[in-house]
Amino acid sequence: MCNQYVHIFVLVKNMMTNIKKAVLFIGLFLLINISTSQAQTYFPAKFSKTWDTLSPQRFGWCDNRIDSLYKLLEEGNSKGFILLKDGKIVLEKYFNGHTVDSNWYWASAGKSMTAFMVGLAQEQGKLKITDSSSHYLGSGWTNETSEQEGKITVLNQLTMTSGLNDLLGDCTTPNCLLYKADPGTRWAYHNAPYTLLDQVVENATGQNYNTYFQQQITLKTGITGLWFRSGFNNVLGSNTRSMARYGLLTLNKGIWDGDTIMHDLTYFNNMVSTSQNINKSYGYLWWLNGKSSFMLPGSQVVFNGSLVPNAPSDMFAGIGKNGQYCCVIPSQNMVVIRMGESPDSALVPTDFIDKIFGKINELSCATAIQTVKKQAINVYPNPADGLVHIESPLNTVAELYNIQGQKMDNYTLQAGTNRLDFSNLAKGIYLLKTEFGIEKILLE
Fold first, then answer.
1. pLDDT of the residue at 24
2. SS3 for 117?
3. Portions of the chain given CATH number 2.60.40.3080
4. 3-state helix, strand, coil in the chain (%, to 5)
5. d(Cα 79, Cα 74) in Å, to the nearest integer?
6. Which helix (H) or strand (E) holds 199?
């Protein structure tokens, strides 16, 4: 009987030993995997100029193709460019006297930062985006009736669906903010309601906008910058690396090096997803790629297709005047930043992003480069007094829209130079849509 107990004791002891080993192994496995996961994304130290890099050759990128990308950027009046992979700098280049320390304005790319700050204020219980904007701006902030004004919410400001008349410019005084449509029924890129979000945040938090930005963003991430007024617009200015830091923060869904800046994942996901059914390529002040259709600033036309065809479909981006880009690509753990002057005369700077990503797609030495030049039409003179010459690479059909999105006419273009007379049209901006893209025509 004693031998039986001894035998049972030995079996139990061996079993416990094996369990301990298994637990230890599982613990080590989890620890290794957690450490590996954390190591996948690098974060530069706050307020440090040190930023780890990765060699482009690690990805099989050819030097001559990198040079081709840089040539495009330089010829496009760029000032700063950064490409991050896994948080580390793979490409960084400055042009036209710009340096790593030079500041530049974000233009409307800064709208994406405002969306992030509104989300933080809501998370902290300072506001609700479903509240009427009048709750934070006071009654009479528009020239609408009390009933009309009361229907406009903070969410409408975030999604460009306030219903206010965008044709009256960016003025933010009540006499400029007139009724055009019911909130939520019309998408229009209108800076005035967006600009007033800084007052929403200030009144909700009781803090100056720059102070709130510095406490909630700068001190926690090292993203430096200063908000200032440019005309009627509220604009953020900083260096190129600060924009790259913001791209890295949003790439990691509001988490900076283990410190969760934005806890409200529902708000974050909504921010970078289609926010309404009118312009599917717009979230909360973020532009979205890979959707079935898109609209452009200053137009009511809905265009079929993806916003930036050459870019990955999951890209979301802050896009500003003259080509300020903060592009975030989760599927590739990549951030692409460009700051600078206007690259061309395109209606919106999404055209230059497309060219940039076309070059990025060709960086690999193993990628065959398309030698056929992208077909496009050429419009001149532009601005014009009525008579316009349009060079087309092929026979095609062109559609002309006014800025309100009303279709004005159809034209059959022949391959070569076409001469069209628009002198019967009122002065203003028109959109010429062909199979090759969209061109802005200014009639003076």
1. 38
2. helix
3. 378-443
4. 35, 25, 40
5. 8
6. helix 197-205
C-beta of residue 104 within 8 angstroms of C-beta of residue 98: yes
Q: How far apart are CA 98 and CA 79, in angstroms?
A: 6
Tens digits of residue pLDDT in 125-151 = 999 999 999 999 999 999 999 999 999
Question: Where along the chain do the CATH 3.40.710.10 domains lie?
Answer: 105-361
pLDDT digits (tens, 9 = 90+) for 158-195: 999 999 999 998 999 999 999 999 999 999 999 999 99
> Of 143, 284, 286, 169, which Cα lies nearest the Cα of 231?
169
From the options 1.10.3720.10, 3.40.630.30, 2.60.40.3080, 3.40.630.40, give the CATH code of 378-443: 2.60.40.3080
Is residue 16 predicted with pLDDT exceeding 50?
A: no
Q: Could you tell me which residue, 105 or 303, shows the higher pLDDT?
A: 105
The beta strands (E) that lie in 361-404 are given as: 378-380, 387-392, 396-402
Confidence band of 370 (pLDDT split at 50, 70, 90): low
Residue 87 to residue 51: CA distance in whole angstroms: 9
Distance CA 52, CA 39 (A): 13
For the stretch 285-302, pLDDT in tens is 999 999 999 999 988 989
Q: Whole-angstrom Cα distance, residue 231 to residue 219?
A: 28
Q: Which residues of 19-44 are buried (b: 16+ CB within 10 A; e: fewer)?
A: eeeeeeeeeeeeeeeeeeeeeebbbb
Using the 8-state DSSP alphabet, how is residue 58 labeled? G
**pTM, to two decimals:** 0.84
